[in-house]
Design a protein that fits this description.
Length: about 500
């Protein structure tokens, strides 16, 4: 019996189509796997079901009855529970309070029934007692827990909803093998009770261990659904890739830069928060890509190289000399540059004019205590022009610019004084196609001029069309290196999803 059905669902954010045509049909008593590449639309589809995103069009049926999921409360009333990829825990509250936060047991209207709270939450904690650790108790503040324990609490919170339809968006990303095995035992029990489960994972072994059927989403559209028993990891990946298996460099884009300028940066057995035992070299004039699904250690590696925070162990050499970046200041003075796709957190200086946003690195590297605006502007304008930055005047506030032009300001600040290595951490996130074209044209020109560039992008096409080599990450480690003719979409997905 069909429990949940979505037909022709779509969602756009301005000119960006997050979901073009989503179809999904979930049976009662099944674990239904939803799979797709970064940005394919799978999380958007789940958020529509959970009521946190309103679709632009399409229909949603529960038990063959059309419904409108107007918000999270409406979803809960309709019997839908969700585990979000981004954890939503209250750190200063206890484990028990977080598990039952939506429905804290009351004693009268004002007071929480502490006895009922501890008893009910204890039942969910007991489900994972053998794998959670002794320090995970009902009274423990969530802020004291490890990452894996927090994820378990979020899972308990979803289970406590007792919803007939449960959605788990990458629930195992921080769990160890024993914790995953226990979680799967619980899911099989729920399935046997007739519950409907939507499961999103980036691990092919998990998908084939727990799933009954799999639906593939590609480029915002549902491609098809098949039973797990009748398919294989390679077949699933081919559904994800479609006909775009090759490199497929656009006609108007020059090929990736030629290398051979000697080693600029060498990394040996580097480990840190979010990544482990990473080794590679990047040459002058080379664009080295970091691929794989989002959150597999790529951004953590780039931030560690920039000293934010530094790595725990391993060795890094720059131009043959040992490099120790204890913080971003030391990284900048050593010749490293870092551009984040999160310009609001790591880039833009809000409330300040464009000139002050584009020149702070220049001031730091040259130890400027005082400088005339005219001299600063003279140094900044060539970098801004190279990126085709559109602005009325350097004295105007940074907030007067579009998102794409704000990102160009952030990038231009590193080009006034040329660095030795440019670290690009998903730099095109949230900018328009024109700004992306300007950025990659400049990246290729910088590489041709001998700059070493390390590029992480959550968009596979950006890596395939611009990187000379791609290191594919999974679980914080490099799983495969793709170079030359191996740089295909199929090989990229194959390594990212660990399809053996």
């Amino acid at each position: 019996m069909t429990k949940l059905k979505l037909s022709g669902v779509s969602k756009a954010y301005g000119a960006t189509m997050a979901l073009r045509h989503g179809d999904l049909e979930i049976e009662a008593g099944e674990v239904h796997v939803l799979i797709g590449a970064n940005g394919s639309g799978k999380s958007t589809l789940c958020k529509i079901v959970a009521g946190s995103v309103r679709p632009d069009r399409g229909t949603v049926l529960i038990d063959d009855r059309p419904v409108t999921v107007s918000g999270p409360r409406a979803a809960k009333a309709l019997g839908i529970g969700i585990f979000y990829q981004e954890l939503s825990l209250a750190e200063h509250r206890s484990v028990a309070e977080n598990i039952l936060m939506p429905d804290l047991p009351r004693k009268g209207r004002l007071f929480v029934n502490r006895e009922a709270l501890a008893e009910t939450a204890g039942r969910y904690i007991a489900l994972f007692a053998q794998v959670a650790g002794e320090d995970l108790t009902a009274d423990t503040p969530v802020g004291r827990l490890r990452a894996d324990q927090r994820q378990l609490v979020e899972i308990m919170k979803a289970l406590a909803s007792k919803a007939p339809v449960l959605i788990f968006d990458e629930p195992t990303s921080a769990l160890d093998r024993a914790q995953v095995d226990r979680f799967f035992e619980i899911l099989r029990g729920l399935r046997n009770e007739g519950r409907s489960i939507v499961f999103i994972s980036h691990r092919m072994d998990e998908i084939f261990a727990i799933g009954d059927r799999v639906t593939v989403i590609r480029d915002g559209e549902t491609i098809g659904t098949t039973t797990i028993a009748d398919t294989s990891p390679a077949a699933v990946i081919r559904m994800m890739v479609g006909e775009q298996e090759g490199l497929a460099v656009p006609q108007d884009a020059p090929p990736a830069s030629a290398t051979g300028g000697g080693t600029a940066l060498s990394v040996a057995h580097l480990s840190g928060q979010g990544f482990s035992d990473v080794s590679f070299t990047v040459a002058r004039g080379e664009i080295l890509g970091l691929g794989g699904l989002h959150g597999q250690g790529q951004s953590a590696l780039l931030r560690a190289l920039f000293g934010a925070p530094p790595a725990h162990s391993g060795a890094v050499t720059l131009a043959g000399a040992a490099l120790r970046t204890e913080n971003p200041r030391s990284a900048i003075t050593s010749g490293l540059a870092y551009v984040s796709g999160d310009r609001g957190r790591d880039g833009v200086i809000t409330g300040r004019p464009i000139l002050e946003n584009v020149t702070p690195v220049h001031a730091l590297r040259n130890r400027l205590m005082l400088a005339s605006p005219g001299r600063l502007a003279a140094g900044a304008l060539p970098a801004l022009k190279a990126l085709n930055t559109k602005f009325a005047g350097l004295s105007h506030p940074i907030s007067s610019l579009s998102g794409g032009n704000q990102q160009k300001i952030v990038i231009a600040r590193w080009l006034i004084d040329r660095p030795d290595v440019l670290l690009l951490d998903d730099p095109t996130k949230g900018i328009d196609l024109s700004a992306k074209a300007d950025l990659f044209a400049l990246i290729r020109k910088l590489a041709e001029d001998g700059l070493a560039i390390i590029l992480y992008s959550s968009e596979d096409a950006e890596l395939l069309n611009n990187a000379d080599r791609i290191l594919v990450f999974n679980g914080g480690s490099v799983r495969r290196e793709l170079a030359g003719a191996e740089r295909t979409r199929y090989n990229l997905y194959h390594a990212a999803y660990e399809a053996a």
